[in-house]
Design a protein that fits this description.
globular; five-stranded mixed beta sheet; alpha+beta
């Protein structure tokens, strides 16, 4: 069992935060996330994985970047959670 989360990442922010759901230019839902890390040598991607693991309450090894390592739009896969469980945990914030 795993969930896939489309993410729009904003690096070099003033804080690390999950800002909630939005839509991309094609009308698909995306999770807006900000991290303080720079988009250099995977630092922002690592910060994204750490932040989502913390917010979702899962070990870091359960959160993987499935697509978009060089893009602001990413697909993150979370193992051991369903899509419904992910949405539930993200809506608690």
């Amino acid at each position: 069992m795993s969930a896939r989360i489309p993410v729009k990442l904003t690096p070099k922010s003033s804080k690390d935060a999950v800002e909630g759901w939005d839509v991309d230019p094609d009308g698909r839902p995306v999770l807006k996330v900000r991290v303080r890390a720079q988009p250099v040598e995977g630092e922002a991607n690592d910060a994204l994985v750490r932040l989502l693991a913390k917010v979702l309450g899962v070990p870091r090894r359960n959160v993987n970047l499935a697509r978009g390592s060089q893009s602001r739009l990413k697909m993150v896969e979370v193992t051991d959670l369903t899509d419904e469980e992910v949405r539930e945990r993200l809506s608690k914030d």
